[in-house]
Amino acid sequence: MAVLAIDQGTSGTKAVVVSDDGDVLAIAENTVRPTYLAAGGVEQDPMDLLHSVLDAGRKAVTQAGVPVSAVSLANQGETVLVWDPETGRPLSPAVVWQDRRSETLCRDKAAARSWVEQRTGLILDPYFSAPKMQWLRRNVSREGVVTTTDTWIVRHLTGEFVTDTATASRSLLTGLDTGGWDRELLELFELAEERLPEIVGNDALVGKTDAFGGSAAVGGLIVDQQAALLAERCLDPGTAKCTFGTGVFLLANTGRRPVRSASQLASCVAWNVRGQTSYCVDGQAYTAASAIRWIQDLGLIASARDLDSTAAEDSGGTYFVPALAGLAAPWWRPDATASFTGMTLSTDRAQLVAAVVEGLAAQTAELVSAVEVDLGGPLTRLRVDGGLTQSRRLMQATADLTQIPIDVYSSSHATALGAAACARLAMNPGLSLADAVTDWTPATTYEPRWSPDRAAEFRHHWASAAHATLPQEKR
Q1: Which of 121, 205, 322, 397 fits a disulfide with 176 by CB distance 3.0 to 4.6 angstroms?
Q2: Which residues on neighbouring strands pair with residue 4, listed in sequence order?
Q3: Is the dihedral of CA 384, 389, 393, 394 positive or negative?
Q4: What is the pLDDT of residues 374-398, one digit of tens each?
Q5: What CA–CA distance (Å, rounded) separates 145 from 153?
Q6: What is the model's pTM?
């Protein structure tokens, strides 16, 4: 049974055909580009997203030369749009998870912040779906339905109106303990009268499609980061992975019991399989590859491939805080701004690039420390994936500053492979979760080279620089 697994992400759509034993038979990728607007707006053309899914999927199936029995979809998680449920026609741009224009709506609900966090496990922040959905209803269109992009794409593939448990848990509209749409939360975000999709498990079959050739079942829907957590076999409590993509996304499995974070992380569903729900805590940084693209646009590097050859071995006392779109976990300060500090007339381009690399690693180390608080103990290893894991300089800096070994996932397709595992579960009810996920060994392991004292001193100075990015009146 071959599976077409589609990873619809912020900067591209990847389609991977995977055999029953986990071998990758074909890969096709299409680039998609967000548009960055004034006042923190980030949008995508929904039809570009849909066309990228259809085109990449068809190319991959053609390359594989075998029929596919199932199609699975991993989605961006918190990107939303308004659309016509009868025709599927978009009625708004897709408002991307990075979009900050609903910040005022969140501030207006400050009195309900603690209640929302206890109810949902999430932070009351524009990063999640509901504030952006409310913003769209107030500012763009009152027609049609407003949902995350997965529901819209699945409607085009199958005609069904669904979302999955993990995606719904990222919305600020479901109870963490119940997993269902919550009436009081819907009222808080002025969405109580909305038509909402059915929430299904991550091993559910939701329909059929002939969009990629012959008829194939559609199932195994999941959020991209949870798909990567699954692919990297973080199946037991205390195991964690970090994806270095457009942003940094660190997830740790917390088992069958939802954990309310004590360190300002999100707590949500990892997956619901065979009627059992597993949970995770989640910390994120908004910029990673997007920060590398920024210094590329500034001319500091020619491309991301030049990161290692350009970065100095030492940043020379220069620190970079990558708050180009604000600071996410554990600060949750969208008003923070990026900074270089500690520069002198002798600071050169190579040191600035090194500072960017070390800044990304330092922010990851802050997430690791926050996760360890919620787990009640230290991480012993961190599994990593994403395009930036190709940078040896960044991975070594991450090992140095976290003081734990970094295991690089053996494939560059973690999200798609996690979605493929969900599709296998959907197609084979007798298959266990562990058997659905392919075993792997690290492509590379990075051991810490810095002493604990050196790492602690660097993190102290970096944290001071991060604190200085917060507007004075709100500290």
Answers
A1: 121
A2: 17, 71
A3: negative
A4: 999 999 999 999 999 999 999 999 9
A5: 13
A6: 0.94
